[in-house]
Amino acid sequence: MASRRIVSTDKNLLDKDDRNITPSVSEKSNITPAVPAAVIFKLLGFTLAMIAGPIGTYFLTLNTVFRGNSTWAGATAAFMANIVLIAYVIVAMKEDESEKLATEEKANKGK
């Protein structure tokens, strides 16, 4: 028995996408980055603080404040990590509020 091949006349997913992806000559291309530089610098700053803050706190308090008690120095370093994390969340929330206010202000100016 021979099998029959079914030939479909419908367009597949690649054939349906007939858009022209090359911009026209008069159209400027958008080369702005997806994430603003200020956001990247803020993230790098908090990353550095998350690394250096707790480690620095541990070694700073190990012999000076707690006189060799590594348990208390480790607890202080963990507390410092939580402080950096809370600061990052607060900064992110304020940034989100400022973006919302800016869009509302822009919408009010448009009216």
UniProtKB/TrEMBL annotation:
- Which InterPro entries does the protein's record reference? Vma21
Keyword Membrane attributed: yes
Main localisation: endoplasmic reticulum
Gene Ontology cellular component?
Answer: endoplasmic reticulum membrane; endoplasmic reticulum-Golgi intermediate compartment membrane; ER to Golgi transport vesicle membrane
| Localization terms from the record | Endoplasmic reticulum membrane; Endoplasmic reticulum-Golgi intermediate compartment membrane; Cytoplasmic vesicle, COPII-coated vesicle membrane
UniProt membrane topology term: Multi-pass membrane protein
What span is annotated as the signal peptide, if there is one?
Answer: none
Q: Among its keywords, does the record have Transmembrane?
A: yes
Q: Which UniProt keywords are given for this protein, alphabetically ordered?
A: Cytoplasmic vesicle, Endoplasmic reticulum, Membrane, Transmembrane, Transmembrane helix
Q: Biological process GO terms, please? A: vacuolar proton-transporting V-type ATPase complex assembly
Q: Tell me where the transmembrane regions lie.
A: 39-60, 72-91
Q: What family does this belong to? A: Belongs to the VMA21 family.
Alphabetized PANTHER family for the sequence = VACUOLAR ATPASE ASSEMBLY INTEGRAL MEMBRANE PROTEIN VMA21
Q: What does this protein do?
A: Required for the assembly of the V0 complex of the vacuolar ATPase (V-ATPase) in the endoplasmic reticulum.
What is the name of this protein?
Answer: Vacuolar ATPase assembly integral membrane protein vma21
